[in-house]
């Protein structure tokens, strides 16, 4: 007969000076169920509900002579799962539905391990005895020792010292689902072309008024400009209860079957926002409930590094919005404008009014000079998005892309003696890439876990 050996997970475990313990970092803990012996150790996954603590690993850390008999008992029926190695081949075997087992080993062994699974759903089986050649290795077993590793209740936010941001690939963001995708031109946008663009409304004097644009970046958060939600009188953010967000809209102030209107739960303004020079002009709105992702409501992508690490003059972005048109009134339906990004030197030298702003190191300029095409009042807070090609799709030979938030519409030069934009000057945008850590931090601090599309 070929020598046989037992191993857990296809490994023969050699005896050491102490009971083997799981590698640091594995989601397992080791426990010793026998009060006066450490020769028997269990490995189990902690934090599971009682109904799922019926599976664990047993390791016997002692020398087992050839022709030995091991008896092992439990307080309820179990299955024992063994991996058997003969020379260099392996096979898996099970001993099923018993509360007592006798195993004979023809060969000498340096310890052994096996998996225990309860036969009765929801009932955790406890080891009550283990002997080898009538020598007891588990005297006075601590029956019920597994209970302390069971979860008592689900985790609650802000109770435990860990938080997470969950990210999904760009296949889940920045890809409008249009029946056709015509070339992008300045002017009216196609319905559904920019499904992440949001309309911000404020309740003032018992009337709801459109104030700014925004960009949906997850199911629960909208990115916008700080000045859109800042009360100059109080020096504080607008109360969340006074704000609402419209998503999936094409016609301003008109809901359709594609629209989703959300209340705002919390307003988060950058802690270093300067309401005079508009430095750090960025804010997040936490929605009171998650949006439903549809063809008309979808987050834009966020980028960390790569080609978006610094705007260059070769970048061209698109800004959707309902901002003022040539007649100085808000647009009735969503418009779009293509705007090239320009260097800070070009921006400042062409428009002296910006020299006092110094373009905040976290901002950049985009648009045209003496062209009359650009963003205006009402476009603030909206996103300048750029399309980044993906890898060639397998077998198709075609290249597709996703839309990423490059900047947030911040401010521009106004016509003399008015508060209306002058479309002959460049406009300033907050560089979203430089605020990625801030965005992650706010979401971590606020919710503990959230899905961001990247």
Automatic annotation (TrEMBL):
Domain Peptidase S1: 184-444
Gene Ontology cellular component terms for the protein in this record: extracellular region
SUPFAM superfamilies the record matches: Trypsin-like serine proteases
Family matches, as PROSITE patterns: TRYPSIN_DOM, TRYPSIN_HIS
Keyword Signal applies: yes
Cited CDD domains: Tryp_SPc
GO molecular function: serine-type endopeptidase activity
Keywords, alphabetical: Signal
Record's signal peptide: 1-16
GO BP terms in the entry: proteolysis
Domain of life: Eukaryota
Residue ranges of the TM segments: none
Name of protein: Chymotrypsin-like elastase family member 2A isoform X2
Native species: Bicyclus anynana (Squinting bush brown butterfly)
Gene this protein is translated from: LOC112047013
